[in-house]
Each structure stands twice: as structure tokens, then as C-alpha cells.
Amino acid sequence: MMINIYKVKCCLALGLSITILSSCSAQQGVTQPVKPPTLPIAKGEYINPVFTPILADPSIIKDPKTGMFYGYGTEDNWGDGNGSHLVAVVKSKNLKDWIYVNDAFVTKPNWKANGGIWAPDVNYIDGKFYMYYSYSVWADANPGIGLAIADKAEGPFVDAGKLFTTAEIGTPAAIDPFYISEGGKKYLFYGSYSDKDHNGTWAVELAADGKSVPDLTKKTNIAAGDFEGVMIYKRGDYYYFFGSKNNCCDGAASIYQVRVGRSANLLGPYLDKDGNKLTVRGSGTLLIKRNDRFAGPGHNAPIMRDDAGTDWFLYHAIESGNPTVPTGANRRVLMLDKLTWNNGWPEIKDATPSVTAQQAPVFN
């Protein structure tokens, strides 16, 4: 059965409760939910999830001023009596112990009449913290991407306005931004999947100050319309594309997952391990998928490296035994797993979220 995942994602980001009957869940062997185990955690270990109740579509950055890690998540109503968190900000000194700090915004941006702030992407640029964010309502025909700037990692972030809307950029579902710089130039990758024509992941060049797109007609197709939540990671001679597929927000039945490809050039072409172009639907090498405990692992943050040189993968997932908060929103918790490399390709053990105590990142 065809599901418009973009609409599902938007609706749940606003804290609405939706139930979707998905034949694909049954086809992929989704089992009964498993309740979280109660396990002792020794010093130097951790167990997933590393932050609850929600930090969906996480962005993680290490503050160059303090060395602390900060995380940011899609606007959601946690059911804690505080209404919608306007991009929750959390912090950690070790990637495994996170505490809530505050919301990034005091008030919402005003360049759209209404909407939710989703999938923030925070970067340290020219001595300040730049947050590229999605702005949309459920089933929005014209969502867009904006920019907010702060002097400190925890904010407050002050809106700098709209970069573009879907209508202005000319590609469907213009959300899920990701910033990267290369060769003295700044780029923004974006795109959330749907079944519309010309949908997909795209890249545009930003102005030198990162605050606008000089030419909205110049954009490069990076991946097909069944990917979303792009993250690009440079390692060695390759740029690695991490993108999420399937239904992010179908509660305990979610089959969201991350697939990868790589390219010798930032703007592609990106190929999976079998040589398939990511611009073709159905491509991508599997990195992580659901298990009985955690459904819908995906929309990962930038890869973090610890002091031992180990790479760490942060993403959200849904606890199948506790899939929603009281408001009905999907309980997309923050997850952490070790990322290894095998013959030039990233791997996560068993290609699924860890469910037992793991050795924690090392920080001196």
C-alpha cells in the first residue's frame, strides 16, 4: 500500500496522533513490541536510549568553545505540560549522558503564518551557531527552510529569515536541511521523500555568508525521492551519503531505516555498495534497521568521533513497547551506536540498534 510519508512525518511532528494501517509492516515481519529490559549499567558503559522522551531528527554539534556536545530535535509536544518544545536543546560531555537545557527558540519565526520547526541542522560558522531548519504544517504544499543564528550553542536562536520555500526552489518537500562546506564554498543539501515527480535530495550553493541562496535555479539532484534526512560525511577519499527510507512515524510498526552510498565528489554521483546510483529509487546499502526492541531507527545526526578515534552514530528510534507520549506523538528517543568501517563502508553491528550495555565513547 502506498503511504505519503511526508504527510505522516509532518503531522506527527506537530504532536497529532495518527494510526496508519501499513501492509508493508506485515510484509517485513514486524513482531510484537518488546518492553525495555531493566539492566545494570557499569561505569564506562551505556544502554540505549541515551535521551528520552523525544529528540527526533537529531542534530549534534561539539561546541568548540566549551568542548560540550549539544543536541537539537524537531519541535514536539512531549506531554510534560510545557506544550510544544520549540526545538529542544540537550547537552552532554560524553555522548551518553544527556540533560535538557532549554528550547532553542523563544518565539516562532514569522515568515510563515503557522507551522512546526523540524529537522534542525546546527553548525558553527564564522564564530556563531547557525541553525538551518524546516518550517511546515501538516500536508503543507509549500514548506520551506529558514535560518536562525545564536552566539551560544544553547541559544537563544534569533531568526534570520527564510532561505526558500518549495515553490521558490521548484522541488517538492523542501525540508530536512544539511549544511556542509567544501573548497571555500558553502552548500545546503535538503529534501524529504514523497511520490511526487522531481522529488528527491538536492544540493544548492549558499552565499559566502551562508545566509541565502544566490541562484535558486542552480541545484543538483543527489538522491532519489525515496530518501530523506540526508547527512554527508567525508572520510578519506570519499563523501558518504546517509539517508533514511520508509515510514518514520508509524509507531511500533515503523520500518524506517538508514541506507548509504558514497562518491569521490561532494555533488555526486553517489553509488551504493552494489554500484547502483542513489538517484534511482530502491538503491542504497543498508546500515541500520529495526529490531524487536526499537522500531524505525533513522534520520541520523553528523558522525561524532571520540578521543580514542572511534566513530559514533546518533539517531532516533521508537521504543516498540512504549511508542508514544501522552499527546499521541511518536516517542522518538535519542540513540547511540558505534560505527565501524569495513573495506571503505560504514557498518553497525548486526545492522540494528544495540539493546544491551555497550562500551561507552572515550573522552579524556
UniProtKB/TrEMBL annotation:
It is an enzyme of class 3 (hydrolase). Residues 1-26 form the signal peptide. InterPro entries: GH43_arabinanases (IPR050727), Glyco_hydro_43 (IPR006710), Glyco_hydro_beta-prop_sf (IPR023296). PROSITE patterns: PROKAR_LIPOPROTEIN. Pathway: Glycan metabolism; L-arabinan degradation. The keyword Signal applies. GO terms for molecular function: arabinan endo-1,5-alpha-L-arabinosidase activity. Its EC number is 3.2.1.99. Keywords: Glycosidase, Hydrolase, Signal. The keyword Isomerase does not apply. It comes from the Bacteria. Belongs to the glycosyl hydrolase 43 family. This is Arabinan endo-1,5-alpha-L-arabinosidase. It comes from Mucilaginibacter pocheonensis. The lineage of its organism: Bacteria, Pseudomonadati, Bacteroidota, Sphingobacteriia, Sphingobacteriales.
